[in-house]
Amino acid sequence: MRKLTYFIATTVDGFIGAPDGDADFIYSYVDSEFIGLLTAEYPETISAAGRKQLGIEDAPPKRFDAVIMGRNTYEPGLKAGLPSPYGHMREQYVVSRSLTTPPDPQVRLISGDLVAAVREMKARDGLGIWLCGGADLAAQLADEIDEYVVKTYPVVVGTGMPMSRAGFGVRPLELTGCTALGGGQVVTSYDVKR
């Protein structure tokens, strides 16, 4: 069975974006060492445009062959002329009630029962499924997430969009990996204890 992994960037105090959802401030904490880690361990999480710029457009997926993102996560790429940001993956999903047709033939829309759709995806053969963002999707899928990979940047912002809007609930995790980088970034991975 495939795993659903919430692979997300956050501040030390647990925010993935500003109060309006903008996360551009995070990019100032992305350096060459961090890009090297992504390229080596998670090449499929780099957008098609970024992969081309880095010369890794032919790098095979290592962990994920499907990505799920919310409309707000998808929108910036769409506005920048990237209607298929992860076209190198086997499956791209956008969760939206407002989009009625996919902006690109490689993008599939989920407008109905998200949990049922994810359970069906998990039952199919393949690599893992990357939950790309954001807080509302993480809340809706809280009981379906099997793993967290958290990229923590060395910054505190005080308020903003949280990693999840799931509300209070004790969800035990098991630490499975931790990598500290020279720029102060820390990448931790956790399996969900069931």
UniProtKB/TrEMBL annotation:
One Pfam family named in its UniProt record: RibD_C
Record domain Bacterial bifunctional deaminase-reductase C-terminal: where: 2-185
Lineage top rank: taxon: Bacteria
Entries under SUPFAM superfamilies matching the protein: Dihydrofolate reductase-like (SSF53597)
InterPro entries recorded: DHFR-like_dom_sf, RibDG_C, Riboflavin_Biosynth_HTPR
Protein name: Dihydrofolate reductase family protein
Organism: Streptomyces katrae
